[in-house]
Amino acid sequence: xxxxxxxxxTGGCSVSRNDxxxxxxxxxxxxxxxVADQAREAPPTETDLAFARNAASDVLSKxxxxxxxxxxxxxxxxxxxxxxxxxxxxxxxxxxxRDFLASYVNGRTExxxxxxxxxxxxxxxxxxxxxxxxx
Length: 135
Hints:
disordered N terminus, 2 helices, 135 residues, 19% helix, six-stranded antiparallel beta sheet
């Protein structure tokens, strides 16, 4: 009779049980400080906002009612999408404008930005506000 042994490599990982029999759970203190601090608070950088503005201009140019435009900053890893949230309206100066929401995700940080853009005389949409969303 041939005996076959099957081994599972754990790669240095271990599982421990506490007195209640539950598996050990990781909490914030189990993450190194440099990673945890960076992951908790990652406000948008100027380049993140530039990528979001560009996506907003692109999606507003399409003029679709139900479209979104993805954006990503490869330098910071920040990403999100921009979605128009209202019909176009006329600004005081007569330009066509539209409001939008932009999601912002970077590490554990997730938030929303609100903005507005207006169409220039050349037909391009210029983003004139982009700030943290206040509900």
